[in-house]
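Margin note: ligand = adenosine-5'-diphosphate.
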Amino acid sequence: MAARRTPVCLTIATSDSGGGAGIQADLKAFAASGVQGTSAIVGLTAQSTVAVTRIEQVSPAMIVEQVRVVLEDLGVDAVKIGMVGTRETIEAVATALDLLPDGTPVVLDPVMVAESGARLLAADAHDALVGRLLPRTTVVTPNLPEALALVGRAAADPIDVSALAEEVAALGPDAVLVTGGHRETAEDVLRLEDGSLVRLPGVRHPDGAAHGSGCTHSSTLAAQLALGLPLAEAARVARAVAGEAVRNGRRDVGAGAGPVDVLDLDAQRARTAALAGEDLTAGARR
Ligand SMILES: Nc1ncnc2c1ncn2[C@@H]1O[C@H](COP(=O)(O)OP(=O)(O)O)[C@@H](O)[C@H]1O
Ligand SMILES: Cc1ncc(COP(=O)(O)O)c(N)n1
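Resulting structure:
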């Protein structure tokens, strides 16, 4: 019998020079889940914990070629798409997605604003993100402000998150996972392809370091799908790993929101505990 090969995940995203989010967080999360991480870098940010001072995009041809050459040799078991930045880049990413084997799970984190407040998606790129990428997505993982922006709604109080997830689902992705980092409860809400809802509660860590939480979450989700977990279980692991990464985040680095810290042993522990249905966020570890 042939040995099972290590699952391969591909992140199509942007570099964060501060190391907290983007490609850098994605590769750490892939490593923590025990999969082989690969990357197609679509842009660069000059970024710290307090500001984004410059953004440059990679050429469309180079974006497609990074995906092609990885696919040809290593293959890909799941893809995560992060910050894409501009319309032109989104077109290149859509072209690259055409190269994927049928059925490859695609997790889309519709990154719009940095934890520091900087805008990361060009104002005129919204329609391309919705029209070109959302319909090809297995699961889209907006936070609350991103979910509202996707459907073009202003914030309301209180917000019915399940109704919002339903509205996002109407834009074409198979499933929608609204993350809870921007809500009191830190509960993630997953709307599956069959229309059913799964609530993923967890402890909120108000003093944690959350720069990179969304990237860590969506990359862990992709990694767990690559490992073969069904979506609802993969989402539970991703919520647990991201929550732990926020709790363990580095508050002593930078003047702004510190970077999350995901550790391989913690990820393993989180995965085991989440699968066993434990509340792994109960009880201090440090
Ligand atoms: N303060 C927090 N405490 C616990 N979990 C958190 C916290 N902030 C975010 N998370 C978790 O991290 C993941 C990413 O969520 P979120 O922060 O909403 O994404 P984004 O970084 O895109 O804003 C989710 O699973 C969310 O529940
Ligand atoms: C290059 C890049 N990609 C994504 C984010 C979003 O970060 P977060 O995970 O905190 O939402 C970021 N700040 N920079």
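The longest strand covers residues 36-47.
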